[in-house]
Design goal:
Oligomer: homodimer
Number of helices of chain A: 1
Largest sheet of chain A: 5 strands, antiparallel
Helix content of chain A: under 10%
Radius of gyration of chain A: 15 Å
Chain lengths: 137, 137
């Protein structure tokens, strides 16, 4: 299990392959640091689109790129990192209070986002200046 | 939220679309009748493959076909039904003790399976005769 962290972390998923195909798995308390009460599927994203551009106050998220390829820019007190997601063989864990933006989606990309909490518009911080002030306080 | 059922149920997922792409969502207690403690991703399945062919004693599962197309044969006391999954806009809920088999995968199909419980080999019933005896008892 990934140790407690306030940084985005790329977590490899175990892969089981045989003549019937491949399977990767994310299980709570092993690869997945939280139990997802909400799952969403993102698709049909135009290549020039920028998604995300917010932080969550309390919600933990994890992104898997099931098909295609995408980039995730993550910003925290430690600085900015870019992750490329292009297979169901890893999961990008985003703890609360990291700023994230997704872009560079290739055609046909499908991503799955696991979220620890039900949808709550009050959990979003959409103003980058407000977010910076909060993480520095 | 889908009512308590012992039958496989196709559950439509709300879809939110804008210029940045489409998003569908499955949230616990609404579209998702259980909290998934395990998520797995199935891909690279040859067209002639048959997957599944078992029932679970206690584990609830839900399948979303994120890309491509697949068929799921489900058998219960009520008889046999076939579902075609071909978009992230619906989720097939499989309660415990239904017999399910997946086949007819088109090239590039990616499916996501949400499972209520950690992996437990003892939760599987792989013998169809044993399963029939159990559901009739």
């Amino acid at each position: 299990m990934p140790s407690e962290t306030s940084e985005a972390t790329l977590i490899p998923l175990p892969r089981f392959a045989d003549a019937r195909g491949s399977l990767t798995v994310a299980e709570y308390a092993h690869q997945l640091p939280f139990v997802p009460r909400r799952v969403f599927f993102v698709y049909g994203v135009p290549r020039a689109s920028m998604r995300g551009e917010h932080a969550h106050k309390a919600c933990h998220q994890a992104i898997v790129c099931a098909s295609g390829s995408m980039k995730v820019e993550v910003e925290s007190l430690a600085g900015t990192r870019q992750f490329t997601l292009d297979s169901p063989e890893s999961l990008l864990y985003l703890p609360p209070m990291v700023w994230a933006a997704q872009h560079g989606y290739t055609e046909g990309t499908i991503s799955i986002v696991l979220a620890s909490d039900p949808y709550d518009p009050d959990d979003y911080i959409r103003d980058h200046g407000e977010w910076r002030a909060l993480i520095r306080s």
